[in-house]
Every structure is written in C-alpha cells, then in structure tokens.
Amino acid sequence: MKRLGSLLMKGLVAVLPLGLTAYSVYWLVTTTETLMQTFLLWFIRPEIYRPGMGLLVGVVFLLAVGTFVNAYVVRRVQGWLDRVIERIPGVKTVYGAVRDLMQFLPTGNSTNRDLRSVVVVRWGDMRLLGFITRDDLPELEAQTDGVDLVAVYLPMSYGIGGYTVYLPRDQCESLDMPVETAMRMALTAGMSSGPPPAR
C-alpha cells in the first residue's frame, strides 16, 4: 500500500505541472475567444463568425494597445483610470498588486531591463536572493545624507508576496542569472531553478 501511494504521488508530481499549464493556456484562449466573440457579434452577423476570429481580434487589440501605450493621450487616460481605481477599496489592492507584478514581464524597453536585475543581499551570515526594482530614489536619498539607495524586492517562497527593502547599492551583489531562473529558485524554496542550460 505504501508503494502504491508513493507511485501515485510520483505520477501526480509528473502530471500536475503539465496539466495546470495546459489548463491555464486553454482557459486563457477560450476566455479570450468568448469575450471577443460577444464583442464581434455587435458588428458582424452570426453566420459570418468563425471560431478563432475572437482570439485573432484579441491578439490584434493587444498589439494595438502595445503600439499606442506610449502616446500622450493614452498615458493621460491610463493615469486617469489608475487614479479612479485607486479610490475603490479592495479593488485598488488587487489592481496595484497585479500592476506591480507585471513590471517583471519583459517589454523590450531599457527601464524594464533595469527592473530585472538579480542581486544577493547579505544579512549576517545569510544570503537573500532579490530583484532591484528601482535604482534611483532621490526622494529617499534626501533623508539619508545622499546615500545611493536602491529598492530591492525579496520574494517569499510558495506565494506571490515578499518584502521591498531600501539598501545602499554597495550592499547588493549583482548575479549573472536570468530573472526567470532566480524567481523560480526563490518561489520554490531553492528546490528548482529550471532545466539545466543547454551545452
């Protein structure tokens, strides 16, 4: 019986990551298709609609938003929406957390690359894995006699959460490690850092 349970757990460990990933992709695709289908049917007749058109419209919409997001008018509208959402209790917490988490995704601009610096912070004999989220903090430096501070995010294992600390730059040791590898290592309590690099 013990061996049966062990085999069952091994099978679960092998299948669950793949199953959850496949389900997440399926959910994202079907949800996008359903939402965009409803939108499209406002403009076209139902007999013209073909499966996949909603997903295509969703992709085109995201490309358009990505193209115009730096435009002055779009930035003003986005800023206005941010201010409105920040006044709604509960919603502002979720929105702020998701917005901040999205800063870790690659967008191809230099600012985002700066946000993705991986560092080690010393705390006594311990070494903490962290990510520099801001390397210019003039508003804090004015209160610390001009010390060159950086904001470092220290993630917690097995959850979306962590601590943001403000440290002198010379207390942060840069690591030559991809942020994806470092984040996976941090979130899995060091048990996984992803597949071995290709030789």
Notes on the structure:
- The structure is a single chain.
- This protein is of the alpha+beta class and 199 residues long.
- The protein has 3 domains: 1-68; 70-102, no CATH class; 110-187.
- 50% of the residues lie in helices and 17% in strands.
- The chain is built from 7 helices and 5 strands, in the order H-H-H-H-H-E-E-H-E-E-E-H.
- It has helices spanning 2-40, 53-68, 72-85, 91-102, 110-115, 138-141, 179-187, and strands at 117-123, 126-134, 149-155, 162-168, 172-174.
- A 5-stranded antiparallel β-sheet has the order 4-3-2-1-5.
- A hairpin with a 2-residue loop joins strand 1 and strand 2 (126-134).
- Helix 1 crosses helix 2 (53-68).
- The longest helix is centred in the first third of the chain and has 39 residues, at 2-40.
Write the layout of secondary structure elements.
Layout: H1 2-40, H2 53-68, H3 72-85, H4 91-102, H5 110-115, E1 117-123, E2 126-134, H6 138-141, E3 149-155, E4 162-168, E5 172-174, H7 179-187
Antiparallel strand pairs: 1-2, 1-5, 2-3, 3-4
Helix pairs in contact: 1-2
